[in-house]
Ribosome-binding ATPase YchF (Blastochloris sulfoviridis), 364 residues
Amino acid sequence: GFKCGIVGLPNVGKSTLFNALTQTAAAQAANYPFCTIEPNVGEVAVPDPRLDELARHGKSAQIIPTRLTFVDIAGLVRGASKGEGLGNQFLANIREVDAIAHVVRCFEDDDVTHVEGKIDPVADIETIETELMLADLDSLEKRVVALEKKAKGGDKDSKELLDLMMRALVLLREGKPARLVERRPEEEKAFAGLGLLSSKPVLYVCNVEEGSAATGNSASAKVAQRAKEEGERSVVISAKIESEIAVLPLDERKDYLDAVGLTEPGLDRLIREGYALLGLITYFTVGPKETRAWTITAGTKAPAAAGVIHTDFEKGFIRAETIAYADFVAHGGEAGAREAGKLRLEGKDYVVADGDVMHFRFAN
Ligand code: GDP
């Protein structure tokens, strides 16, 4: 599955947030199977209101949302790239995630020590980014030496990889993250293979005091501005509020949310943003037994999408009967959509769209 790592300096609220996520997951566990939780790994359901609509029209007995994994990666401090704190362990953990939720402290509280002495989330972001970039510089510089020899020997693949690595090195030496490296689509795979920490997509999570949960504060505004300039995403959340919501019975949440001025838990937004950050989209299967959401990467073609359900579906793929979400709902379900001519027969080159309701035909 896809993994989103939660990182940040100490005392910014990572554990509080992670615990809220896993408590929410635990509360969901009764309804949703396959919820496994390890100490620092939590799987959560991706909230999607479309599921309820589809299940209503499809008269499904059960709803099964798709899931996203969060990993709490503690131990990042200034100097991690030089082995400070949990140093290498921490960096190895980041290598294994697909995207980063970077929690920054935007709340004032004299009782909670700030490791850098003051509330300055943009400076904190730079501290962490610097550690990631230093680690990348170090690993690239080591690898480039060996590769240069191979490339000089005339190996074409080595030359191309070296070229890609040199472009990353140039950026990193300017203090810019590797995710900004300009690359051709056919280089994406090799680029991902480099495993550079600063190449992972980042979402900034601004942990604000309770009173600013709905509006954000001046510190989170600075982060939002920076994110905008860098073409990144940011969300405002109050870890404290989320930790309180997470332990409330579901039927009491609405009143609590109203009281703090929120329309939904911040965690729901965080999960959805994490999902989007990973470039993931959802397609659905709808039947009397269940309405279910399935996760694919944007751009996935029908056979590979079918393979997410079962490898046999991919191997024996014949075609996909497809109804767009809006058509399914507008015509009151599959039968109505079919009558209205909204059911499409799609072949193996069809690129699945977010919200597609699919039925796969396959041969054994
Ligand atoms: P971590 O080191 O980043 O995992 O941070 P923790 O989640 O352990 O939080 C560090 C301290 O900050 C704890 O005492 C939390 O109770 C406190 N804390 C976390 N979030 C908030 C918040 O939104 N407001 C306030 N006032 N304290 C918070």
